[in-house]
Design brief:
Chain A has 16 helices and seven strands. Chain A has about 475 residues and is mainly alpha-helical. In chain A, a hairpin with a 2-residue loop joins strand 3 and strand 4. Chain B has a domain of about 260 residues: Beta-lactamase (3-Layer(aba) Sandwich). The N terminus of chain B is likely disordered. The chains are: A mainly alpha (about 475), B alpha+beta (about 500).
């Protein structure tokens, strides 16, 4: 791989570690596909070999593009995300294809084909962002613009959005429909990072005494934090999206801690959220119902508690090692026990077919992604970039934890996606964007971008 | 999970906090792991074997339940497919309704069909290893067959002999505990309940019947035992040493006419005037079923001794069995006297099977089987093996419930029971149980219920007395005297069973 580098073009850089890990991922996905084929057809053969090959080819293309670009970016993120996406694709192949059907031109695409299309698009976004984004100036300079546009997007969704399953999350603009709250995650992280980096010293040092030794930052600096709390609780009430609220607020608190180092503020923040949530539950019946269903789904086993109970049964049927891909999820009268298995309960499906071992492997993959993201944050050159990277990584890790905990009845069930595995175009594309940004910001190039002291050197070519 | 960057870089202002945050997140994921472990390991069995589990329901609708076979390989239950291809159950005979139960899409399952649902449906993994191995085999479209110890012909005969009466028969092999027949009447139409076309009507008929056919009287019915309980008193007296086979009570002959005064209450007898002034010993008292002698024996044994023997026989707790059994009781409990008796009157009455004593037919069959098996109580069982669709046989091991009394004491009781059937005076009550060419040991019971109704007719016994191969308990609700209804019924059962034996 030592192609002669042309002047002005980057010198390709071998990514040995990424290649090795990708080969492992390819092997694991091929094995999974074979086992699904064995269960389904009784003979050793691949299920939808074109889909698997296309996906592996896409991963290989991303790898080659990164090699060609020659940037010194993280080599573990892509394989970890690739494995999660591949598991999601395998699950989509295993589920009934008519769960989602969409007419695209002359072709009618089923669940697996659509998931593959979105996955490949997400990879394209990730690699384009990873190669082209060099500076985060455009993100940090306009933080209030971003924040305003995010709130605007949210308001637009509420006014123009369509209700799906009792929550208003989908914005339907003619041919294009999507869930803006997915993009809002990134926008909010950008805003948090910029705002907290700017005010971290003030938030940490200028304290006002409340009671005894308990101090909080002075009111003017707390205003944005208070707004954030109001926004989160507002999302619970108005959009009925408890998952997004928890995600935004948890990421905000994490970044607040990173910026100020004040554990007291974080505990106070959690307490305020819980108090606010309890008050909401007392006032709004739909919040109360959600909590009641969480505490005792068996009170209404065929109604509100149905999906939760079915998910727990799926976990139980899986046991330690699972039933094997394709052998679980028994259908009764042609119906899957969990209707929203591909969006809200993929972990329950994996828990049944791959067992607790599979659940732990998937959770482990998310931890790898977060660990890499936090590592990139720790190595970042300045506060904004560190908070930005940590926030982006946390969005993935916290979101996965929230939906997993909901599936396992550890917290109330929420309708957010399991990153990279759940079906859903908006979610996959935005997660692709996050991976792309993390990759771009992990560049260990000789000159850290965005430093005021030195002008940034372009590229690494011709060195 | 390291968050340390490469050395020699500029100061990383957030490094330490990133490490602590990573730790917090790792703890959250650890919590998720615990959650997964709770549902996937700790609660796995209880949830996935629940009848409302989608896996069980799906298996019920697609997997063909294994057959249920009798001891000779006769099919007792098999499956057919309805118009839509979903299987439903067909039972060979309504006489089997009590032990087999039913499996219905609408009404769930009962009996062996419920107790062994996961084996019959092939979803039952017994251990994680075989469950893991099962993943690599083609999916079973058929569950395991159950091989039972029942004899179809004996089961049919028992139900036929009970006729239109309500009652129960339990016959078992005293050496192994293998249940040969377990009848409860009236029976119900289990095939009708299982068949989707007739399910509702058949189930409504069974639940609406005032005679409660869905109650398995053999294991769930609790009856006043009357004189068959004297065998329990004999076990208690002999094994505690309170009495011996030679024990006599001088006051007994006089009490026959005047009644035995216990704490101001008179225990009356008077159904064997022909013994006159004879002072009865253990065997004679058993032969003529003397209530006075047994009341005195019970008083001498005491509440604690009675309770001890009853508990060893399995009173006071469900009997370990394939199906859920009701517990038999010696007293209502709570009385001030040892064993929970309220007073000596209750103890004296309990000694000959009245008082607050309530027993299941299975428990009394086990009492007979214990004497027949030289004092060791066999553990009863219905299912002897599972046969997989590929023909692999997995035997179910039998066992005992332990020694209840010594071999010598058992021999003494056996001799007394033999005299009760074959003795000159015993024949007056029990001749119906006799089998030509075979010595039968047994005891009748006539359980007074108070009020004006006919008493329950009881018999327990075993044969051949020298080397028993069958023990039996029969109860016919309001069937009159033990000797007139239950004993002849048992005799017919013993005759048929022993004639079929080579």
């Amino acid at each position: 791989m030592t192609a002669a580098s042309l002047p002005g073009f980057p010198r390709p850089r071998i990514r040995r570690r990424e290649l090795g890990l990708l080969l492992v991922v390819a092997g694991a996905l091929a094995l999974g596909n074979l086992s699904l084929g064995l269960t389904r057809n009784g003979s050793l053969g691949l299920v939808d070999p074109a889909g698997l090959l296309l996906y592996l080819a896409a991963l290989a293309a991303v790898h080659l593009a990164l090699v060609t670009a020659g940037r010194r970016v993280d080599e573990v993120l892509l394989p970890a995300v690739g494995l999660l996406g591949g598991i999601g694709l395998l699950l989509a192949e295993r589920l009934p294809q008519d769960l989602v059907v969409q007419q695209v031109g002359p072709a009618v695409l089923g669940l697996a084909s659509l998931q593959l299309v979105w996955l490949v698009l997400a990879l394209v976004i990730a690699v384009v962002v990873a190669i082209t984004v060099r500076s985060d100036r455009w993100l940090r300079l306009y933080k209030y613009t971003w924040a305003a546009s995010g709130v605007g997007l949210l308001a637009l969704t509420f006014v123009l959005g369509t209700d799906v399953n009792g929550t208003r999350l989908t914005l339907d603009l003619g041919p294009v429909s999507g869930q803006p709250s997915e993009l809002l995650k990134v926008i909010l992280v950008v805003f948090f990072a910029a705002y907290l980096a700017e005010n971290r010293v003030l938030l940490a040092d200028a304290r006002v005494r409340v009671v005894g030794r308990l101090t909080v930052p002075p009111a003017p600096y707390l205003l944005p934090a208070g707004l954030m709390l109001a926004l989160a609780l507002g999302i619970v009430v108005i959009q009925r999206d408890l998952g997004a609220a928890m995600l935004f607020y948890a990421v905000f608190l994490c970044l607040f801690y990173l910026a100020t180092g004040s554990k007291v503020d974080v505990v106070l923040g959690i307490g305020l959220f819980l108090v606010g949530f309890v008050l909401l539950a007392l006032v709004f019946p739909h919040v109360r119902d959600r909590v009641a269903t969480w505490l005792d789904p068996w009170a209404d086993p065929l109604g509100t508690g149905y999906q939760t109970i079915q998910a727990l049964h799926a976990f139980a049927r899986g046991g330690l090692l699972g039933t094997g891909l394709g052998a679980g999820l028994p259908t009764v009268g042609g119906q899957l026990p969990i209707p929203a298995v591909h969006t809200d309960f993929p972990l329950a499906a994996l828990g049944e077919e791959l067992g607790m071992a599979g659940v732990l492997a998937v959770l482990g993959c998310y931890l790898v992604v977060v660990a890499r993201g936090l590592r990139i944050a720790a190595a970042a050159a300045d506060d904004v970039r560190a908070l930005l990277c940590a926030g982006l990584a946390l969005v993935i890790g916290v979101q996965a934890a929230i939906i997993a905990a909901g599936n396992l009845k550890l917290i109330p069930l929420t309708g957010i996606t399991l990153p990279f595995i759940s079906y859903g175009g908006s979610s996959l594309l935005v997660n692709g964007l996050i991976v792309g940004l993390l990759l771009a910001f992990s560049d260990r190039g000789p000159v850290p971008p965005g430093e005021p002291r030195r002008a940034r050197q372009r590229g690494g070519g011709g060195r | 999970m390291t968050v340390q960057g490469r050395g020699g870089r500029r100061e990383r202002p957030l490094g330490g906090r990133v490490a602590r945050l990573s730790l917090a997140l790792a703890l959250v994921y650890g919590g998720l792991t615990l959650g997964a472990g709770y549902w996937q390991v700790f609660r796995a069995d209880d949830l996935s074997r629940d009848p409302t589990d989608a896996g069980m329901i799906a298996a019920d609708r697609s997997v063909v339940r294994g057959r249920i076979l009798d001891r000779d390989g006769h099919v007792l239950a098999t499956s057919r497919r309805d118009a839509s291809g979903e299987p439903y159950r067909v039972y060979t005979d309504t006489s089997l309704s009590a032990p087999l139960g039913y499996a219905s899409r609408l009404y769930g399952s009962a009996g062996l069909e419920a107790a062994y649902a996961s084996e019959l449906l092939g979803t039952g993994g017994d251990d994680p290893a075989s469950r893991a191995l099962a993943k690599f085999r083609p999916r079973g479209q058929r569950g395991d067959d159950l091989r039972t110890s029942l004899s179809l012909s004996l089961q049919r005969l028992a139900v036929q002999l009970l006729g239109t009466d309500r009652g129960a028969v339990v016959a078992l092999d005293p050496r192994t505990g293998d249940v040969l027949a377990m009848a409860s009447t009236p029976t119900y139409d289990a095939s009708g309940i299982a068949n989707p076309a007739t399910s509702r009507a058949a189930f409504a008929a069974a639940t609406g019947d005032p005679d409660q056919p869905l109650l398995d009287r053999a294991i769930q019915g609790r009856y006043v035992p009357g004189s068959v309980f004297k065998i329990v008193t004999a076990i208690a007296g002999l094994s505690s040493g309170a009495i011996t086979p030679a024990t006599t009570f001088p006051q007994q002959p006089a009490a026959e006419s005047t009644g035995l005064l216990v704490s101001g209450y008179r225990v009356r007898d008077g159904h064997h005037p022909f013994t006159g002034s004879e002072v009865l010993d253990f065997a004679r008292a058993t032969e003529v079923s003397c209530n006075i002698w047994y009341a005195l024996a019970g008083l001498r044994t005491g509440g604690a001794g009675m309770e001890d023997a009853a508990r060893r026989l399995g009173f006071g707790a469900p009997i370990p069995f394939d199906l859920a059994t009701a517990s038999s009781q010696l007293t209502n409990g709570g009385g001030p006297l040892p064993g929970g008796f309220a007073d000596n009157v209750e103890l004296a009455n309990a000694a000959y099977g009245q008082g607050e004593v309530l027993v299941t037919p299975l428990q009394m069959a086990l009492v007979a089987a214990t004497i027949a098996n030289d004092g060791v109580e066999p553990r009863p069982r219905l299912v002897t093996a599972f046969v997989s669709p590929t023909g692999a046989v997995r035997d179910v091991s039998g066992g005992t419930l332990g020694r209840v009394l010594s071999q010598g004491d058992a021999a003494a009781i056996s001799a007394a029971m033999t005299q009760a059937v074959e003795g000159a005076d015993g024949q007056r009550f029990t001749s119906g149980a006799q089998v030509a060419g075979v010595t039968v040991a047994g005891k009748t019971g006539t359980a007074q219920l108070g009020g004006t109704g006919e008493p329950h007719s009881w018999f327990i016994g075993f044969a051949p007395a020298e080397a028993p191969t069958i023990a039996i308990a029969v109860v016919v609700e309001q069937g009159g005297h033990g000797g007139s209804r239950a004993a002849p019924l048992a005799g017919e059962m013993l005759r048929t069973f022993l004639a079929a034996k080579p």
